[in-house]
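Write out this protein's structure.
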Amino acid sequence: MSYELDAAGHARLGSFFSKIGGNLRDKRKRASFAMYAYGILGDGERKSVEPIAARASGDPALVRAYTERLLHFVGDAKWDDQGVRRVATAHATAAMAEQEPVTVWIVDDTGMLKQGTHSVGVQRQYTGSAGKIANCQVAVTLSASTRYEAVPIDVELYLPESWASDAALRRKARIPDDVGFKTKPELALDMIERACLAEIPGEVVLADAAYGDSSAFRAGIRLYGLDYAVGVRPLTNVFVVNAAGNTSDEACSVKDLATNLGRGAFRRVTWRDGTAPKKLSARFCFCRVKVAHDDGTALEDRDEVWAVMEWRDGEAEPAKYHLTTLARRMTKKEIVRVIKERWRTERVYQEMKGELGFDHFEGRSFPGWHHHVSVVLCCYAFVVAERLRHFPPSTITTEDGAQSCAA
C-alpha cells in the first residue's frame, strides 16, 4: 500500500493538510493534526499516541512533551470530526470520479479486539472480523465506491445498551449527553443522512443482512431518494408479484421461493470476467416481490423489488439472498455486479487496520476514539487519491480483474 512520495506528492499532502486545517481553528491544532497524520502514514508498527510521539520527536528528551501534546489533541481538544471528514471525502471522491462516477455507498461494520473492559463501547459481542463473539468495540462504517476503489467516508462507534445506560461508564468515557443507544442500522441511517446533506455522490446503498433485514433501514434509504441492494436472511417473507403485476395471496420465505422455483430457474451470471479460470460467477434467480413485514404500510403501497437468490457452485442449495430496488431496465449482470461491490470493504478494513492503525487507539474516551478515526479516514482518503494517480485502474489489474492494492 505504501510508496515513497516525491516532491510533488509532499506538496499535495501539504495542500491536503491545509484544506483540513480550515476546520481546526488554530495553528497548534493544525500542527498536531499534521504530526499525528504523518505518524499514521509512516512506517511504524503501532499507530497510537506514544509511538507516534516517539518517532516524531527525534529526541528522547522531547518524547514526553510530544506525547502530552498529541494526547491533548486526540483526547481533549475540541475540533470538528465531520468537518475534516468532509474535506477528506471530497479529496478522494474527486480523484475516484476522474475514473468513473461514484455511485455506490457501502454500509458495513468491523470489530476491534480489546484485552480489557475500559475502552469505550467494549464488551463481548459478535464481530464478523473474528467470525465469533469476542471482547471488542464495533465500528459502523459508510464507504463510497466505484468498481475499482472504495473510500470510507464516515464512521460511528456502536455503543451497546450496557454502555449507553450506565451513568458511571458514560462519565468515565466522556460520552456526550446527546449520544444514546442506537442500533447499527440507525447509526448507518445517520451517516447516510449526513452524506446526503453533504451532497456526496452516490445512488445505491449496499449492506449485508444485519442491515437489510430492517424494514426501517430499507425505508429510510428510500426516503433519501436512494436505491438499495441489501442482503436478507433466508427466512425473510415475501409476496411474489407475477408478470401481470398481481401479488400472491400468501407470503413465503425467500428460501422457500428459491426451492419452489427449482434449479432450472437459476442462470449463470459472471460479474467479474478476470482471467480464466479465475472468473467469478454463480447461478442466480430473479423474482419480483413485495416484502411481508408489519410496519403499517398497506401491501399495495410497498415497493416492488427484485429478490435476488444466489446458488454457488458446489453448494446443495441457494445460500445468499438479496432485495434490491435497482431498475428493471438494468441487466441481471449489472445488478449482480453492483451487489458484489459490497465486498470491497474487506480491503478497506484490511488496509485501515494493517497499515493505518484504525484499531490502534489506546485511549478510553468517546471523543478521543472519534478523533483518532477521523485522522485515519483523512489519511486513507489521501492514499486512495495517490493510488489512483500513480496506479489508475486501466494500467494494472490482478488475476481476478480487480485493481491491485500494491500502491
